[in-house]
Amino acid sequence: MAATGLNHSDGAKNGEMAAVVDRNIEALLARRQVEEQEKKREDRIADAITRFTGSMPFVYLHVVVFGSWILINTGWMPFIHPFDPSFVILAMAASVEAIFLSTFVLISQNRMQAISDKRAELSLHISLLAEHEVTRIITLVTAVAERMGIEESQNPELKELAKDVAPEQVLDRMEQVGGQASGKNLSEREVKTEKGR
User: Fold this and answer.
1) 70 contacts: CB under 8 Å, gap ≥ 6
2) Is the pLDDT of residue 94 over 50?
3) Is the pLDDT of residue 194 over 60?
4) Which segments cross the bilayer (predicted)?
């Protein structure tokens, strides 16, 4: 009976977890659909071209076109008169195509980078909210532990964990540590250079 009750409890928890996961997936899909609908026509065209240029049909098309162009203008197809024996037109067409394709790719990358930045900001915001909630939980649990006379409630680490972390201080500390590490690596390279001399 106890095992049956435990199985029912696990099943209920799994059902709740599945519901939460489904809700999150639906929210993400809905947001993605909204973003797709809000895209400008220029962005849609750039994305479509970028998708096509990154596909195998695009490769096959160029193999056929460039291969036929080369065969015709090198005289391997005598029934067709060569129209670009020096391949100047081919080189110019390939250069112009490369300019436009790289521009379309950059447009798509810039838009994707903007979306990625928004998601990174959202992730940071959620992390800060989670950190604040954990801090409040630690404060409450510590107060309960003190009230119950639990010895662990006097652990000095709890006081540090119960403090809110200021994001700007964390960023400043990261830059400070990163700067020190860069300076240390530079000094080590200079010492090695002097020894090598």
Assistant:
1) 87, 90
2) yes
3) no
4) 58-80, 86-107
Q: What are phi and psi of 180, to 5 degrees?
A: -65, -40
Is residue 171 helix, strand or coil? helix
Contact yes or no for 150/158 (Cβ under 8 A): no
Average pLDDT (12-26) is 73
50 with 104: CB under 8 angstroms? yes
What is the rounded CA–CA span in Å between residue 53 and residue 50? 5
Helical packing angle, 56-73 and 88-147, nearest 10°: 160
Beta carbons of 69 and 84 less than 8 angstroms apart: yes
Q: How far does Cα 38 stand from its chain's mean position?
A: 21
CB under 8 A, 24+ apart: contacts of 154-160: none
User: pLDDT tens-digit profile of 147-188?
Assistant: 888 877 777 777 777 777 777 777 777 788 877 766 666 455
Q: Which phi and psi angles does 191 have, rounded to 5°?
A: -65, -45
Question: In the chain, count of helices (H) and strands (E)?
Answer: 6, 0
Question: What's the rounded Cα separation, in Å, for the pair 27 and 125?
Answer: 17
